[in-house]
Specification:
CATH architecture of the largest domain: 4-Layer Sandwich
Oligomer: single chain
CATH superfamily of the largest domain: Clavaminate synthase-like
CATH class of the largest domain: Alpha Beta
Number of strands: 19
Strand order of the largest sheet: 1-2-16-6-19-4-3
Distance between the termini: 38 Å
Number of helices: 8
Strand content: 25-35%
Order of helices and strands: EHEHEEEEEEHHEHHEEEEHEHEEEEE
Length: 327
């Protein structure tokens, strides 16, 4: 399929007036649905009988052929609903969550993300999407080449009073377990003060999709950079912690500062490729995590979106996925 023929998300609707079971439909149409995911980057199942959160986990198993993954090396607050089905990021409703690809800062990541609308918001609250192939193509070649040469670095500072704690991130209070996990996952670790921790990870900004062979912009460079935060939040954190102590920040892979105009350009490339769809009751959105970035709009009213991750991908082929390291 040509780029012009791609639709994001590709909508798959149940027969009008029917009570089609989502899992039965997927089992009958699985090869076609998997093909649509590779072509378009996301599919939206609408009008199917899901059966609540438990049924949603069944949707994951039907399409991915395995149960949902644990949320590993977590960077945002989520609550487990049942098993390895989680709430979407537990941020206040008046905060936007910028576009990103799940777990791109790790050495392995989930290939597919599943979202289930258990209760739509009153206004806005969509999960906006952007085609990571188009984002890559939109970026100035000089900017891409600089990142290809230098890579990108995520620096995380774990504080007891700000952000996710290291105990929550690594699902343990044992420092030796954290050190072993970081050694396996290519994380540089530094204990700071009585109970602080800093980690550094150097990763690539672009990857080749394992099925389509296309190059995708797959990273958290923009998402984790402090200039993407709301102005009042950014200024408050800088006043308290300074740039060196921020919970998250990004740099070039050699530690160099990323210029403001480059970050402005990257944010613009995401936004110019953004598409959105209002949630409806029992919608299930499935995205190929490497082909499609996702975010969250601000919203009003109750909003309940369940999230699951599936099919861990190891680009190096080392089999190093380590679900025991974090839950």
């Amino acid at each position: 399929m040509t780029e012009q023929g791609r639709v994001l998300p590709y909508r798959v609707a149940a027969e009008p007036g029917g009570s089609s079971s989502a899992t039965e439909f997927i089992e009958a149409e699985r090869p076609r649905l998997r093909g649509l995911l590779s072509e378009h980057g996301a599919i939206l199942l609408r009008g199917f009988a899901i059966g609540g959160v438990e049924g949603f986990a069944g949707v994951v198993r039907a399409l991915s052929g395995e149960p949902p993954l644990k949320y590993a090396e977590r960077s945002s607050p989520r609550s487990a609903i049942k098993g390895h089905v989680y709430t979407s990021t537990d941020y206040p409703p008046d905060e936007e969550i910028f576009l990103h690809n799940e777990s791109s800062y790790q050495v392995t990541w989930p290939r597919f993300l599943y979202f289930f609308c258990d209760r739509p918001p009153e206004t806005e609250g969509a999960t906006p999407l952007a085609d990571a192939r188009r984002v890559h193509a939109s970026i100035d070649p000089g900017v891409r080449e600089e990142f290809a040469r230098r890579g990108w670095m995520l620096v995380r500072n774990f504080h007891e009073r700000f952000g996710v704690t290291w105990r929550d991130t690594f699902n343990t209070g044992d420092r030796a377990e954290v050190e072993a996990y970081c050694a396996r996952r290519g994380l540089e670790l530094e204990w700071r003060g009585e109970d602080g921790l800093r980690t550094r990870a150097v990763r690539e900004t672009a990857h080749v999709h394992p099925e389509t062979g296309e190059t995708v912009w797959f990273n958290h460079v923009t998402f984790f950079h402090h200039t993407t935060l709301p102005k009042d939040v950014r200024e408050g954190l800088l006043a308290i912690l300074g740039e060196e102590g921020l919970p998250t920040n990004t740099y070039y892979g050699d530690g160099g500062r990323i210029p403001d105009d480059v970050l402005d350009h990257l944010r613009a490339c995401y936004r110019e490729n953004l598409v959105r769809e209002d949630w409806r009751q029992d919608d299930v959105l499935v995205i190929d995590n490497m082909l499609t970035s996702h975010g969250r709009e601000r919203f009003t009213g109750p909003r309940s979106i369940a999230v699951a991750m599936a099919e861990s991908y190891d680009p190096a082929g080392t089999g190093s996925y380590d679900p025991a390291g974090s839950a």
